[in-house]
Amino acid sequence: MDLTRLVSCKAGLHARPAAVFVRAVLDSGASIRISREDRREDRREDRREDGREDGREDGREDGREDGREDGREGGAPVDARSIVSVLALDIQPGDLVVLSGDDEELLDRLAAMLEADQ
Amino acid sequence: MVVTAPLSGIALPLHKVPDPVFAKAIVGPGVAITPNAEEQLVLAPISGRLIKLKAHAFVITGPDGHSILVHLGIDTVQLNGSDSELIATEGQQIAAGEPVARWHPERVIAAGLSPVCPVIALEASPEVITTIAEGPVLAGADLFTWT
So what's the ipTM on this one? Predict the structure, then answer.
């Protein structure tokens, strides 16, 4: 894959926008990869019933290279045709992602989708 | 794989969900539940690993690699977690029927949002989703089968 695009995801990529994004990739027939850049601070929006911090330990038994220790670090690029992989990236509002592929026009379109205010 | 209902309520065909991305199965095939409008424990619909856990949605990947998404209400990401308290932890192994969160659909309704919960078989083709429940469902009862 020759081309990469660094994109700021204005509204994050939760279920609805992730599904629309993945659908656009699938419809294009192209092979696109996406990864999340490290973020400077972890965002904890979830409230726990027991008051604990959301202790995210890594230790992925499935051997996938995610590299997430405490949720801040980004990871290896994943196949943007897989909604499971895209959701697992946990792209929050303001996160930077890298798109890579061979089709410049498609990358422009996908980047615009992610940069939009959803 | 049998997928069980994460909540009690009334089964709603996906095409009736008030959100076109879910209704057109763009997220994937499955079924939705209109929850009973009272505080409920949200239960894991399958056994597996909680690969994603947010205040309004979670994904569990089963041992066969199949993933189920449960989305609590429509557009509820904008409530910033005020409608739920997490019980499980992202990344943990969980058994079907174990509680993931405590949710308050009545708060979602009060905020003017839809409490309908899509339960989605991610990356499944529609024909592998069968025996879909209809009518009232109890949390933990069979919801659909992923063949």
Answer: 0.86
Residues with Cβ within 8 Å of residue A61, at least 6 apart in sequence: B49
- In CATH terms, the fold of domain A2-115 is Histidine-containing Protein; Chain: A; (3.30.1340)
Q: Select the residue from B54, B58, B64, B103 to test the A interface by mutation, using most A Cβ atoms within 10 A.
A: B54
Best residue in B89, B107, B146 for a mutation probing chain A (most A CBs within 10 Å): B89
* pTM, entire model: 0.85
Q: Which burial class, exposed, middle or buried, applies to B59 when counting CB atoms under 10 A from its CB (0-12, 13-18, 19+)?
A: buried
B21 contact A CB<8A: yes
Q: How would you class A112 by CB atoms within 10 Å of its CB: exposed for 0-12, middle for 13-18, buried for 19 or more?
A: exposed
Domain ranges of chain A: 2-115
- For residue B88, the chain A residue with the least C-alpha distance is A48
CA count, 13 A, side-chain hemisphere, B141:
15
Please report how the helices A104-115 and A15-28 are oriented relative to each other, as an axis angle in degrees rounded to 10. 170
- B27-55 pLDDT, tens digit per residue, is 999 999 999 999 999 999 999 999 999 99
Query: What are the structure tokens assigned to A99, written together?
Result: 């798109």
Residue B139 near residue B41 (C-beta atoms within 8 A)? yes
- Locate tokens 């700021």: which residue? A8
What is the per-residue DSSP string for A78-101?
EETT-HHHHHHT---TTEEEEEEE
